[in-house]
Amino acid sequence: MRFQVNRDVFSEAVSFAVKLLPQRTTLPILSGVLIHADADRLSLSSFDYEVSAQTSIAASIDDPGTVLVSGRLLADIASRLPNAPVQFSTEESRITVTCGSAHFTLLSMPVEEYPTLPEVGAQTGVIPGDAFSEAVAQVAVAASRDDVTPVITGVQLEVGDTELSLVATDRYRVAIRTVAFDSGQAAGTSEPKHALVPARTLQEVGRTFGSAATVSVSISGTQDRELIAFHADDRTVTSLLIKGNYPPVRRLFPESVADYAVINTGELVEAVRRVSLVLEREAALRFSFSVDGLTLEAIGSEQAQASESIDALLTGEETVVSLKPQFLLDGLNAVHAEFVRIAFTKTENPNKPGPVLITGQSSRDDASADGYRYLLQPNLLLR
Known about the structure:
The chain has helices at residues 7-18, 71-79, 129-140, 199-208, 265-275, 325-334; strands at residues 2-5, 32-38, 41-47, 51-58, 60-63, 65-70, 86-91, 94-99, 102-107, 125-128, 154-159, 163-169, 173-180, 193-198, 214-221, 226-232, 235-240, 260-264, 285-290, 293-299, 305-310, 313-315, 319-323, 339-344, 356-361, 372-376.
């Protein structure tokens, strides 16, 4: 096997192929990248039985063939090569990589022991790359990082004929974003599909395909092995879906809320960051909403306290809630609007505040309709 390839193109392709590989694996062969050279194309693939990544690039192929090599080592080498064409060749179990005056010799891994890459099913639909990337970034932050309950470590994709909804929760907050989706079917003509995708995988896919014009989505497989695939620009990522029933969190969102405050998003973000500096870890901030505005208070310890007041336009009753600053910031940073609306839901217990509903507004008076909603459970107030 022997080929020559552009250094930057090769480095980017290897980086993509290894990005989703686990840092540690019980089977060393799964840390490899499979390189296949044929005609004038070079394909690079990785697969760890859960997630696969495949891409192809143009190359000058002198001798076709297939080789398996340590993925992260090759990625490190490729990213530091000098600015010159990359010469890649194999002889028996040795791989030679030459670029300018740099020369590397690596050992290959047994190709025959590498698992067969999963097949991508028929296309379910397409979505604009920028909208998909934005939606993933807004929602995935709310997914749980606790592997004790795997079902909430994923993002639930609810696929309709003309809309795609992404839902995530960690029990303390719920994030939902709805975007336009083209299934090629008229609205209401087919059954909705659901796919529970690991949040970490989906976040990487969102970052990778954000600059693509469109991203093709395919949901396929049997009940025992359900698979989702994302494809754009000669790049494909597949992932096994998480098994289990996702909690019915949509019913937690109120149809309407009478009491709410509208605040400049940037001003609120900066105020939360400043006042929370004195807090100990896991402590919450106290937010007092009144006709005079919003006051933030933090009682960190006997040595440090902080407070700040900012403008807020209140509609309805005055309200006091206690919120964890990082959870609130996650929601505020996902609001891509100049103003944010914080709405106050109620519970049957008047002494226990309901979740706050966070949405974006294009102005103080007009609510925006970007399809993003973030529901955050308050902490008990410290009297």
